[in-house]
Amino acid sequence: MKYKVLIGLEMHCEISETNTKVFSGAANTYTSHPNTNIRPVDMAFPGTLPVVNKEAVKKSLMASMILGCSQPEYVYFERKNYYYPDLPKGFQITQETKPAPIGIYGKLKFEVNGEEKEVRINNLHLEEDAASSDHYNRSSKINYNRAGVPLLELVTEPDLRSADEAVAFLETMRSIYQYAGISEADSKKGQIRCDVNVSIMDADKDENDMSNWGTKVEIKNVNSFGGVRDAINYEIERQTELKEQGRYDEVEQETRRWDEDSMSTIRMRSKVDAIDYKYFVEPNIPKIKLSKEWLEEIRKEIPELAGERKEKYINEYGISDYDATILVKEKNVADFYEEAIKEGTDPKSASNWITTNLLGSLNKLELTIEDITLTPSMLAELIKLVETKEISSKQAKEVFADTLTSGKTPKEIVKEKGMTQMSDAGEITKIANEVLDENAELVEKYKEGRTNVVDFMVGQIMKKTRGTANPGMARSTILEEIEKR
Ligand code: ADP
Ligand code: MG
């Protein structure tokens, strides 16, 4: 490789787990009705004043601690001044790095393709989200529901070296936000948006010397992890090509956007005409002193995170590293798994069902675990039906597929389909003898040593019982009965 890639991310994640917005009493929930989750202060009505949401500050401080950042002595908010229709106040309340944001200088370890990496965190700050605009053919409409939703912005140092690393980092962050109860961190709901900074430099030069760094290009507002991956790879290729052609001066310090349709980055503006936001301390919010006691309390409340759960699955449940990694990747999947175990299911069976059947089906159907009607206790019930041999594992797969969206329990489905596996020894013996009677010539062959005829006879039992006989019992019964002849 002739070039090294430097990537720094600015990850915005809405804090979804507070009751209200960050500076107003409007509900912090999603609704399909535009302009219903709003209070006068979100609309910047004259005379209204912001009130800081303690819960949002607390969740931000928790994130700051998890990332190993230092927390400030006082929390300040600042105004970032610019005009946009979705920003009715004419400024966004945010935190610049001066005097001190909610978190500064941390680091995060994460895994990429089985290898451990570390990225330095420059800072983490709490701000308000802007409203959103919907564009139609001949008009645009503004929805203020999003105005004032708490937003955490995380800024990394340019320590990431590939698209894979950037995505692995984002996945780790998403998991932290979910496990710590800070956010659902669902990019499909628009809760995560990233600015991606990319540059290339000569591979043989020292990356610790900033003067060797290449010109960085910023790609704004990428709203999916797939988009981040594609945008980075596109930019690496574009910049490498220009460098190879001796046209590196055409790589400008500029802001681009990722265009899904053309799968390319498109120039928006040069950094030279960047806006001066004229930051100053927000005069309507007094500085907040953070007491040692409160910080200690928050630190104690940090819940079990993905890494700890993974260790538990491997050491206590005997799950493989590979499967444990899959189980903890999304918190709602890990929760589902733990609920199933609470119902008394064997951890290994539950893990097998979830990692292969459940996640495979969700992927195929493009559903999430929240969209389905299968509950952890239903999965436990299904596994039990197989263990007690009431249904065969083949039947179980069919039942499982039905539980996903039908809203019916496995027992109901088994009953409806008349599926119960026949394990009644008397009944199977009766049918085995019917088969032997009907196939006298095969019994002869068996006696001559052609033992493979048993396979056919087991098949006949399965046919007569419409697949409900326990195959193991069918085989042993045939063998027993044939010997008696
Ligand atoms: P700006 O002043 O343009 O906002 P910052 O220094 O604040 O730039 O950095 C913004 C983001 O860009 C950070 O995530 C940082 O890691 C990243 N970054 C800075 N320099 C580079 C570079 N040469 N290549 C890639 N990313 C970079
Ligand atoms: Mg910056």
Could you explain the architecture of this structure?
The protein has helices spanning 54-66, 163-179, 225-244, 292-300, 306-315, 321-329, 331-342, 347-365, 376-387, 393-406, 410-416, 425-438, 440-447, 453-464, 471-483; strands at 3-14, 74-75, 78-81, 91-94, 103-112, 115-128, 132-135, 140-143, 150-156, 192-202, 217-222, 254-259, 264-270, 280-281, 288-289. The protein is an alpha+beta fold and 485 residues long. It folds into three domains: 3-294, no CATH class; 306-417, no CATH class; 425-483, Arc Repressor Mutant, subunit A. Strands 5-6-9-1-10-11-12-13 form an eight-stranded mixed sheet. It has a three-stranded antiparallel sheet with strand order 4-3-14, with no helix packed on it. Strands 2-15 form a two-stranded antiparallel ribbon. α5 (306-315) runs antiparallel to α6, α6 packs across α8 and α12 crosses α15. The chain is elongated, with a radius of gyration of 30 Å. The model has no long low-confidence stretch (mean pLDDT 93). It binds adenosine-5'-diphosphate and magnesium ion. Adenosine-5'-diphosphate binds at residues 6-10, 155-158, 197-199, 213-214, 216.
